[in-house]
Amino acid sequence: METNLTGIIAAPYTPFDENGEINLKIISKYADYLKKNGVSGAFVCGTTGEGLLMSIEERKAVAAEWMKHRDDQFKIIVHVGATSYKDASSLTRHACEIDADAFSAMGPLFLKPDHVDDLISYCQEIAQAGASKPFFYYHIPSVSGVNLPMVEFLNKAESKIPNLAGIKFTHNNMMEMQLCMNLNDKKWNILHGQDETLLAGLTLGAKGGVGSTYNYMAPLYIKIIEAYNNGDIESAANYQLLAAKFISYLIKYGGGVIGGKPLMKLVGVDCGQLRTPCRNNTSEDIKEFEKAIMALDLLQYFHQS
Ligand SMILES: CC(=O)N[C@@H]([C@@H](O)[C@H](O)[C@H](O)CO)[C@@H](O)CC(=O)C(=O)O
Fold first, then answer.
1. Is the CB of 195 under 6 A from ligand 1?
2. Which of 23, 121, 145, 229 has most Cβ atoms within 10 angstroms of its Cβ?
3. What is the pLDDT of residues 189-198, one digit of tens each?
4. Key word Lyase present in the record (predicted)?
5. Is 11 in the pocket of ligand 1 (CB under 6 A)?
6. Which amino acid residue places its CA nearest to atom 15 of ligand 1?
7. Which residues are catalytic?
8. Terminal CA-to-CA distance of the chain, rounded, Å?
9. For ligand 1, is residue 215 a contact (CB within 6 Å)?
């Protein structure tokens, strides 16, 4: 199914209150902040959003809240992946009811498939629950543990999943990503998923990406895209290098989910703590991390809400 999701799409953190409950009232401010900073959509309840640490009802409530802020310049993709395809299908039906732009599921997390045909059967169950909406397979082997060949997946799934739109490709196998982007007259929408290599993705043909650091640093990535589109590859590479230096610190403080969530406070959108089993950084750690951000002179890209 055709879609045209492009630009910088944030994978939002799910705001939790001091009791660890979902904090829906923050989402309005969060959405305004993302829009003001040029973000073109939200990939809700994915890895960054701790979707798999939430109940199905909570996920539906969060997705419905984000939909209140959807507009033509700000699309909503709902991550529906779950351990059981029954739960994933229920989330899919809900994503259709609220009229989300698209939905996506990562590979089954428990008793993983070791053959593409089995992955396709699993995706078929989920995708058919939302047949009128585009479905993206969420390829994120580092989290799902499912690492099957994506070219074969697209080729075989084409006739079996009519609403397949493409892949959210969060993997460093850029050769495979390029091959996927060029199959069948470039029919698939392949969303780049690693913020540290956005520029490499653009040069290979990606038109947009989904990521965690786009939540608070979107203006830097927009500079990468603008410089690339203007043919100024040197500036684009320098902006990308800045993102890479930042991400090397982010990894030290737990990566995009654990390290990134407290940074939302810096932009005035307090998303609270992470849910167990994620370990929250101490306030000393967060201060050290913020110092590193200052030293890189990165705050200029952390626009306020
Ligand atoms: C493993 C992981 O968290 N990957 C992130 C990246 O944005 C990542 O945080 C970033 O590239 C920094 O390494 C996203 O792909 C996750 C994502 O889109 C999501 O939250 O669903």
1. yes
2. 23
3. 999 999 999 9
4. yes
5. yes
6. 193
7. 138, 168
8. 35
9. no
Burial of 151 (0-12, 13-18, 19+ CB in 10 A): middle
CA distance 88 to 86: 5
Q: Would you state the structure tokens that stand for residue 234, as one six-digit string? A: 């040197």
For the stretch 98-127, pLDDT in tens is 999 999 999 999 999 999 999 999 999 999
Give the pLDDT band (50/70/90) at residue 305.
low
Residue 239 pLDDT: 97
Q: Locate the ligand 1 atom nearest the alpha carbon of residue 193 and give its number.
A: 15
Is 210 assigned to a binding site? Answer: yes
Whether the model pTM is above 0.90: yes
* 213 pocket-lining for ligand 1 (C-beta < 6 Å): yes
What number does the ligand 1 atom closest to the CA of 49 have?
A: 20
The position carrying tokens 């969420």 is 138
CB-based contacts of 226, cutoff 8 Å, min separation 6? none
Cα 289 to ligand 1 centroid, rounded to whole Å: 18
Q: What is the CA radius of gyration of the chain?
A: 18
Domains and CATH numbers, the chain: 7-301 (3.20.20.70)
Confirm whether residue 276 is marked as ligand binding: no
**Cα(193) to centroid(ligand 1), Å:** 6
Q: How far is the CA of 263 from the centre of ligand 1 (A)?
A: 15
Sign of CA dihedral 176, 126, 10, 47: negative
